[in-house]
């Protein structure tokens, strides 16, 4: 039929090769392999088909986008290869002969072994709007041009010095400049900053509600080093982030709810939730969120969807709402890492991701219904708006601080070392 299929992915090094698990048939429940498989094992089977088998139709092409992104010498070693690959997007574009197309993105990693999470997918079918369609076509053209066909890819090469060619990145004006299909990428200079500006402007002008959902939420009052030339030391830049804009809202009638997978309170207690990688940054945000008493926060380990609803506008993305997604550094030069001897990095810091902005009251309503289903689950943790009262009173058993807790018979002193130390005293 003349259909060409292009697949863009990361090098095999980026796939998890730890903890093999059985792969079962969902219909029969029986194992589909004799031995357990890792994610790397499963990817290797697909990659090998493109590398070794000449029978694969020429219309099927697999490309590797090897760009890595880093901005700190203090980063910890990664579980999947030494460095993080920037291709974090889970996106599709289907181009039709009539020049229209279908746009899609999902929060799912599309990995067979992943645990079942609350994910979403948005599909914009038969789209002829040039603002949406052209941006997708141009993005994939740029991405493929800077990727390498799998048969030409050399996995032994040092890809920590990958060069990127910058491409023109301008938003085509529309009746509503906030509605459209946008991408962040290292070849689109300052694209994360442009997206952040659009989101903060919408938050600033919210009239009715703001619902924020992501696996990780931490884009608040952060600083980072910048290097303007490879042979110079970088300065320091501080950004408020989209969450600082949320905290600055004066409209007390707004319905504000945040839902994430990772969480810690202002004292670093995760309450059984998965803790974020940067605990201190999130703790500072949640403390201010509670102090301002502007909304409600909840967490559940199944959350993996990424979206923001502001009134009747949906911003749905493949990106988490962390500082990483909103930082673009054109010149990064890290000659050595504190915890990775012998490694260095030189290049552009920027992830690859997608943001779709849609104004649709009915779509927002349906997504809020799903949001509230997770919100109301029995195992969803809800953070109280009142700040926990930490004190200087010491535990007589372990020496850690005590704090005031609520119990069935009123407030009492509880040890912050709980559950290892269960000491409590009457208030």
From TrEMBL:
One of its GO terms (cellular component) is chromosome. Residues 299-325 form the PLD phosphodiesterase domain. One of its GO terms (biological process) is DNA topological change. Pfam families: Zn_ribbon_Top1. InterPro entries: PLipase_D/transphosphatidylase (IPR001736), Topo_IA_Znf (IPR013498). One of its GO terms (molecular function) is DNA binding. This is PLD phosphodiesterase domain-containing protein. The lineage of its organism: Bacteria, Bacillati, Bacillota, Clostridia, Eubacteriales.
């Amino acid at each position: 039929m003349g259909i060409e299929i292009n697949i863009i992915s990361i090098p095999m090094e980026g796939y998890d090769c730890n903890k093999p698990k059985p792969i079962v048939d969902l219909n029969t429940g029986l194992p589909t392999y004799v031995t357990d498989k890792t994610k790397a094992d499963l990817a290797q089977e697909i990659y090998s088909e493109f590398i070794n088998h000449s029978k694969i139709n020429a219309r099927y092409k697999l490309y590797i986008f090897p760009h890595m992104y880093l901005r700190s010498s203090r980063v910890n070693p990664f579980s999947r290869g030494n460095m993080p690959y920037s291709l974090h997007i889970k996106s599709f574009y289907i181009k039709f002969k009539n020049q229209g197309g279908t746009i899609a993105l999902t929060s799912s990693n599309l990995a067979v072994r992943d645990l079942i999470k609350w994910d979403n997918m948005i599909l914009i079918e038969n789209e002829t709007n040039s603002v949406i369609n052209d941006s997708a076509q141009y993005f994939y053209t740029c991405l493929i041009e800077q990727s390498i066909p799998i048969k030409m890819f050399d996995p032994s090469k040092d890809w920590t010095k990958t060069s990127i060619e910058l491409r023109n990145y301008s938003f085509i004006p529309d009746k509503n400049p906030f509605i459209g299909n946008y991408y962040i990428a290292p070849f689109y200079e300052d694209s994360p900053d442009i997206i952040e500006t659009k989101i903060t402007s919408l938050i600033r002008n919210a009239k009715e509600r703001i619902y924020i959902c992501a696996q990780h939420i931490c884009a608040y009052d952060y600083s980072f080093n910048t290097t303007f030339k490879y042979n110079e030391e970088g300065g320091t830049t501080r950004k408020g982030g989209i969450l600082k804009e949320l905290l600055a809202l004066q409209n007390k009638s707004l319905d504000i709810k945040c839902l994430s997978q990772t969480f810690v309170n202002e004292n670093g207690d995760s309450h059984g939730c998965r803790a974020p990688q940067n605990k201190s940054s999130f703790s500072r945000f949640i403390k201010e969120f509670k102090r301002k008493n502007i909304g409600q926060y909840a967490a559940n380990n199944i959350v993996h969807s990424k979206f923001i609803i502001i009134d009747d506008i949906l911003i749905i993305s493949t990106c988490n709402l962390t500082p990483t997604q909103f930082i673009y550094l054109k010149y990064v030069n890290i000659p050595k890492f504190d915890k990775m001897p012998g490694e260095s990095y030189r290049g552009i810091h920027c992830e690859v991701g997608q943001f779709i902005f849609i104004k649709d009251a009915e779509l927002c309503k349906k997504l809020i219904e799903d949001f509230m289903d997770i919100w109301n689950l029995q195992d969803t943790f809800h953070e109280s708006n009142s700040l926990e009262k930490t004190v200087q009173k010491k535990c007589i058993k372990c020496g850690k601080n005590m704090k005031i807790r609520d119990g069935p018979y009123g407030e009492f002193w509880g040890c912050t070392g709980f559950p290892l130390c269960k000491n409590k005293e009457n208030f």
